[in-house]
């Protein structure tokens, strides 16, 4: 795969969403990038000789988006589980077929998923990689991420073994010593869940994370799987830290939200997932109430879209619909929406940077890392007029409008196309993985897996007797 070229870049004349502390929106200004960082923002900037000039007129320039929870290894099964519930997902991956993924299948899924994220303007992705049955699988995951010119965090996990076991092996320690090198484009976390067993079997894994000095990311508040008991165990043993990312957190009590807020953690909300799979109602309404920082994620392409435009849209819809529903139940009317478009755009950018402890990402400011996205599509009638930039990003834009993407100052997508990517070769790898999975399952199981049984529906007897208006009138109404 050919790597993008380096060199100064200037994006000229766009509407710049800085997402800085003042939340400035700069109309018709330039962003100059040199040496991997933003060196100037302003009108009609003077650029050094040899600078690549990109016309951003009529477009929106914003920080690269950040996804804090995505199972990249599952991308080779894109759309397969569209009709699954969370239970069916658990059965398929955790209990039955997740074991048949080879290292090369992890590589194929990660490669495709990483490119998909980058193509949609997601410049940083946390690969919640819980399919790493062996360190050979882990090496394949890391290899794929490093083959793509984006910014990634490998969140190492293994759903086929207990966290205490896999974090305690010499092979895991060897992987960490070889692959966790401080590479700015490849961060590292531990990814595992806390069941709530009073014996707290996950404690040794937390101790390993503490020893290594790396954050833990955990699926919390997943209905029927991880709940308040796990939060209490983490808190009582001192493992809730500002670096901890709690994924979903959709079915927790007030006590758990208070503990997360008090210890400074953040929540990764995967609204499309929570709405469809059953972890609980998307919790942004509760997180706002407790002042818990929010980032956004899309979870897995085995079900949902692989971009954060869909995540922003779904999050606004879920939060606002709950606000209206609760008001209507009390006979009231919502006259002003509490959650604004600007806030979800912030969650998709700055919120992710804060969750990852990356103060150098998430906003467009001089001196920060040059992870930059230009939304511009002159061929689309939906690209104008540009009246409310935040509203445009949250409700009007889509992945096809991502014109240019820079990561660490390098152009990785331009004029709507990824730079230097051999998609036919990626397709061949993915097709090999799909063929392997179908062969392992057999055709009948493969077909049944994506078409789970539909529960029988009982049609209620009509308890009412209807008559026509004339009859009602005849009988005195």
TrEMBL record:
Domain Amidohydrolase-related, chain residue ranges per copy: 60-412
InterPro entries listed in its UniProt record: Amidohydro-rel, Metal-dep_hydrolase_composite, Metal_Hydrolase, MTA/SAH_deaminase
The entry's keywords: Hydrolase
Polar residues composition-biased segments: 464-477
Taxonomic superkingdom: Bacteria
Pfam short name (any one): Amidohydro_1
Chain coiled-coil ranges: none
GO MF annotation: an example: hydrolase activity, acting on carbon-nitrogen (but not peptide) bonds
Region (Disordered): 449-477
Listed name of the protein: Amidohydrolase
Phylogenetic placement of the source organism: Bacteria, Bacillati, Actinomycetota, Actinomycetes, Pseudonocardiales
């Amino acid at each position: 795969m050919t790597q993008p070229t380096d060199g100064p870049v200037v994006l000229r004349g766009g509407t710049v969403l800085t997402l800085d502390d003042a939340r400035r929106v700069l109309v018709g200004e330039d962003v100059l990038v040199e040496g991997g960082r933003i060196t100037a923002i302003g009108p009609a900037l003077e650029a050094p000789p040899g600078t690549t000039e990109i016309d951003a007129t009529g477009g929106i320039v914003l920080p690269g988006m950040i996804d804090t929870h995505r199972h990249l290894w599952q991308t080779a099964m894109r759309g397969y589980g569209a009709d699954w519930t969370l239970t069916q997902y658990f059965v398929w991956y955790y209990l039955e077929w997740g074991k048949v993924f080879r290292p090369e299948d992890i590589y194929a899924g990660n490669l495709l998923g990483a490119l998909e994220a980058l193509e949609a303007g997601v410049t940083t992705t946390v690969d919640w990689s819980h399919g790493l049955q062996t360190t050979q699988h882990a090496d394949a995951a890391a290899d794929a991420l490093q083959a793509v010119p984006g910014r990634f965090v490998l969140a190492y996990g293994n759903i086929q073994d207990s966290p205490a076991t896999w974090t305690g092996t010499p092979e895991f320690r060897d992987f960490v010593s070889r692959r966790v090198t401080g590479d700015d484009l490849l961060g590292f976390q531990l990814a595992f869940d806390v069941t709530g067993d009073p014996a707290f079997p996950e404690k040794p894994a937390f101790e390993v994370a503490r020893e290594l000095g790396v954050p833990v990311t955990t699926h919390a508040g997943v209905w029927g799987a991880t709940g308040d008991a796990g939060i209490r165990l983490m808190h009582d043993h001192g493992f809730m830290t500002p670096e901890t990312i709690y994924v979903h957190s959709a079915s927790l009590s007030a006590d758990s939200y208070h503990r997360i807020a008090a210890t400074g953690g953040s929540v990764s909300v995967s609204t499309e997932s929570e709405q469809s799979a059953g972890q609980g109602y998307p919790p942004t309404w509760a997180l706002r109430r407790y002042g818990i920082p929010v980032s956004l994620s899309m979870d897995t392409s085995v079900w949902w879209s692989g971009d954060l435009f869909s995540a922003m849209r779904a999050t606004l819809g879920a939060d606002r619909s709950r606000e209206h529903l609760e008001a209507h139940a009390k006979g009231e009317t919502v006259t002003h929406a509490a959650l604004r478009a600007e806030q979800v755009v912030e969650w998709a950018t700055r919120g992710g940077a804060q969750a990852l402890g990356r103060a150098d990402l998430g906003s467009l400011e001089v001196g920060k890392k040059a992870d930059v996205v230009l939304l511009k599509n002159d061929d689309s009638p939906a690209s104008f007029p540009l009246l409310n930039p935040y509203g445009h990003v949250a409700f009007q834009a889509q992945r096809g409008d991502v014109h240019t993407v820079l990561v660490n100052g390098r152009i990785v997508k331009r004029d709507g196309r990824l730079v230097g990517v051999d998609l036919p070769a990626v397709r061949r790898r993915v097709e090999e993985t799909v063929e392997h999975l179908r062969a392992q399952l057999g055709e009948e199981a493969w077909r049944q897996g994506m078409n789970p049984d539909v529960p029988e529906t009982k049609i209620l007897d009509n308890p009412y007797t209807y008559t026509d208006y004339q009859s009602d009138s005849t009988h005195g109404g």
